[in-house]
Amino acid sequence: MQLNSLIKLFNSTRWLVSTGQTSPFAVVSTQSRGLHRTASLSDAASKGTPERPKRPANAYIRYMQSIRSALSSANPGTSPADISKLAALKWQALDVSEKAKHEEVYKRELAVWLQKNAKYLSQLTDADKEQLKHERQQKAEDKAKRVHRRMVKQLGRPKRPVNGFLRFSAQNKSKAGLPREERMQLMKDLGQKWRNLPASEKERYNREAKEDLVRYEKEMKLWEDKMLSTNNTDAVRRKNILIAPSKAKKQPTGPGARP
User: Fold this and answer.
1) Cβ atoms of 149 and 214 closer than 8 Å
2) Is beta strand 15-16 parallel, antiparallel or unpaired with respect to 26-27?
3) What is the pLDDT confidence band of residue 249, given thresholds at 50, 70 and 90?
4) Inter-residue contact 17 to 27 (CB < 8 Å)
5) What is the pLDDT of residues 26-85, one digit of tens each?
6) What's the pTM?
7) Any idea what the Cα angle at residue 188 is, between residues 186 and 190, rounded to 5°?
8) Which residues lie closer than 8 Å to 60 by C-beta, 6 or more apart?
9) Is the dihedral of CA 166, 170, 173, 176 positive or negative?
10) Of the ranges 90-99, 112-121, 202-211, 237-246, which one carries the lowest mean pLDDT score?
11) Cα of 43 vs its chain's centroid, Å
12) Are 173 and 1 within 8 A, CB to CB?
């Protein structure tokens, strides 16, 4: 199992890994910072809440979906992202009349959807509307996080090192493609091995992790200084952004002004 896969699995289960006596598999509470799980409106549909109609795909998406399979077959081994780029080029070169046909289909389906969506919204309770607002905000926040992660990666942000337990786990790799149940069992077995590891061995992994963390912090400082000097402040951790002091309020001048 690759190290990145271990990290993703580790994070997805919200296990707390410590370098001390706490079990590597202590569950992290999700109630902090308001991260309570709430049922979505799609979950509530089975409880009597109307199911939200799905908005139709626009003309470009419809066209891309119609040729994606053929493009994949004609270009074996091409990544999904590159297939999308090929589809975009074909759309740009498409005849105006052909584009108009796809646009017309989209407009007809959109008109039907607008009617269905208006009926759906009229049936929602105040609680449903509040939940819908919450879901939109959550999606917007998730999208902003994805955009930020992609941005800092493109800007060459140093990769944060893993802790002692994950360094130990990386040396106990398993074959890729295991079912989720087997991967979960593997992590449990690794956790047991970690707990049974002699203190001297465990300390070696933790010491290496701490040394790597020191190296990471130095690299981050240099990288963030570079980001600040090139006006890429959005890529810098908020606590490290130097806020310029606000300008002092202009004092009144003229007769009657206080000295």
Assistant:
1) no
2) antiparallel
3) very low
4) no
5) 433 333 344 344 445 555 554 556 788 999 999 999 999 999 999 999 999 889 999 999
6) 0.54
7) 70
8) 91, 102
9) positive
10) 237-246
11) 22
12) yes
Q: How confident is the model at residue 219 (pLDDT cuts 50, 70, 90)?
A: very high
Tokens standing for residue 113: 């959807």
Instruction: List the one residue out of 186, 182, 147, 184 whose CA is nearest residue 169.
Output: 186
The least confident of 26-40, 98-112, 218-232, 234-248 is: 26-40
24: tokens are 């590597």
Tens-digit pLDDT profile for residues 138-155: 999 999 999 999 999 999
- Neighbouring C-beta atoms of residue 173, cutoff 10 Å: 13
Q: Is there a contact between 218 and 161 (Cβ–Cβ < 8 Å)? A: no
In our burial notation (b when 16+ CB lie closer than 10 A, e otherwise), range 176-201 reads eeeeeeebeebbeebbeebeebeeee
What span, in angstroms and rounded, lies between the C-alpha atoms of 149 and 157? 10
Give the chain as a 3 state SS string: CCHHHHHHHHHHCCEECCCCCCCCCEECCCCHHHCCCCCCHHHHHHHCCCCCCCCCCCHHHHHHHHHHHHHHHHCCCCCHHHHHHHHHHHHHHCCHHHHHHHHHHHHHHHHHHHHHHHHHHHCCCHHHHHHHHHHHHHHHHHHHHHHHHHHHHHCCCCCCCCCHHHHHHHCCCCCCCCCHHHHHHHHHHHHHHHHHCCHHHHHHHHHHHHHHHHHHHHHHHHHHHHHHHCCCHHHCCHHHCCCCCCCCCCCCCCCCCCC
Cα 141 to Cα 127, 134, 162, 208, 254, distances in angstroms: 21, 11, 26, 35, 51
Using alpha carbons, select from 162, 164, 166 the residue that is nearest to residue 204: 164
Q: Which amino acid is at 175?
A: K
